[in-house]
Amino acid sequence: MARCVALALAAATVGSCRCGGPAGGDARSDSGRPDSGSDAAVSPDAGAQPGTDSSLACNEAGVAPGEHWQALASPGVSLGALGAAVVWTGTALLVWGGDSPTGLTAVGARYDPGCDRWTPMSTAGAPAARDLRTAVWTGTEMIIAGGYAPAGIDVDGGRYDPVADAWAPIASDPALANCPSERGFWSGADVLLWCFDRVLRWNAATDVWTASPDSSSGGPSARGLGGSAWTGTELLVWGGGLATPSDYYILATDGGRYDPAADAWAPIATAGAPLPRRLPVALWTGTEMLVWGGDGDNLTMPAPTDAGRYDPATDSWLPLGVSGAPAWRPELSAAWSGSDLIVWGGGQAGDAFATGARWDATLDSWSPVTDTDAPSARFGHSAVWTGTRMLLWGGTDGVIGPLVPLFTTYFPR
User: Fold this and answer.
1) What are the pLDDT digits (tens) for 236-260?
2) Nearest alpha-carbon partner for 177 in 134, 210, 147, 221
3) Sign of the C-alpha dihedral, residues 386, 389, 390, 393?
4) Domains and CATH numbers, the chain
5) What is the pTM of this model?
6) Rounded Cα distance, 181 and 32, in Å
7) Cβ(199)–Cβ(190) under 8 Å?
8) How far is the C-alpha of 129 from the C-alpha of 154, rounded, in Å?
């Protein structure tokens, strides 16, 4: 703490360490939930590029070496444990809304991992309480769009500036009713999210929603609960359940790649693709989309037991090794560390997991995540990668409802 105070005093001069203060930067968040965020958290998933741990100077010297779990400070307010907006800014974790032990909430907080400290977010002008919304970090703002509210599905949203600690509304769009829980991504100008049979685009400069060509114009067939990833130039959509009157039960075996600059679709190759599934992990590594885990159709197809790596440069699939992998499950958390795919937790009501593993991309091999001091079994939680650690938030075991918000961190080495 003395070191943190000293750095904070120095920051008054050089502006480097803002212990407990507003956060800015770059980010990503991803859980295994249908909406994970962007590839920076799971990969760069609160959207998706590995984070920069620039705020961690305060306590990095006090971090124990080696693989371990470490519980972090309580936020001091009742934040949502399930379906919350969770993004990594590059220096701070933002958590807003979601389903708390007392119901849907519209409060949030910022967490500085360098000083292990939470700061409440302003509630003035914030969107109404909701969960399972799309949440995206743009580099300067967290964008909230859609989600489930007590009165039904919301089609509005908001933008939060952590430097000013201020909210402003964004335009509404009735089409958001079709995609209340899909992951969103930041293209550099637009928020992009797959929405039933097309991509919705929200432009930050104009505050206007537009839509891509739909499935009748070269896009993938209508679906939900699939995997998606942003490559830096294209939005990849793969798998999921085809839309039917009975739900997303018929599994999609294909996918598509959307180029927002050309506003056009191209198919994703099916040769060598993994088995179809709903709720998979889909993460961008910088060169490939990794697909792992997920669930079957709940009728005739069990959970898949294979995995794949998709290379858009060659439009081809390679298998991802499964020897030593943990038991398959949906709704897990996952993160791309820059070298490893880290998965933990997941499951469904009555069958939650408290286990995980790391996949080494160079060796194509798995090793277990330590269970010493690991959190209790859960699914539907969120995870973000900061550059050195994976931060985990919330979840449920499906029995007692939303858990009291968990906040912990996993150091892989």
Assistant:
1) 999 999 877 567 678 999 999 999 9
2) 147
3) negative
4) 24-52+60-181+263-411 (2.120.10)
5) 0.86
6) 12
7) no
8) 10
